[in-house]
Amino acid sequence: MKCCKCSNVAEYKVALNGRTYFVCEDHIPTQGDSCEPITDLDMLRSNKHIANLQGKEYILFAGLLWLAHRNGLKSIETTIIEHDRETGFCLVKARVFGERGEYQAYGDADQITCGKKVAAAYIRMSETRAVARALRFYTGTGMTALEELPNER
Ligand SMILES: [Zn+2]
Q1: Cα(59) to centroid(ligand 1), Å
Q2: Domain assignment of residue 64, yes or no
Q3: DSSP state of 3
Q4: pLDDT value of residue 38
């Protein structure tokens, strides 16, 4: 994210006339306005890594990856625990590892919770959900990932 007044990397946000501006160290307003350090959440929002559905915010998978890499993510491993081709059900375990330690989570998908469009992709969907949950644990993100929702779009 760049400063709104120069090409430096912005480090602070300033609220002014109901809008938010991002500024570098050199362009912090000298008086009056509230000025706070930019948070990961600000970065996620400005990079469109957060979606708003019916008034509730959901983090996108790409945003979780970005956040995890920013926080020393080193590896992601996934294992299929259960796969039933007949009924179209898949359960995947994800293990993520990095500077913050090791976290595991499960994700499942079937042809119903995938939604019609991606019914054939339930294996990949269960993997995405497992990794999304593991990355949420790793990054301490309470916000649900959009990809975890049933009947997605
Ligand atoms: Zn600047």
Answers
A1: 29
A2: no
A3: -
A4: 93
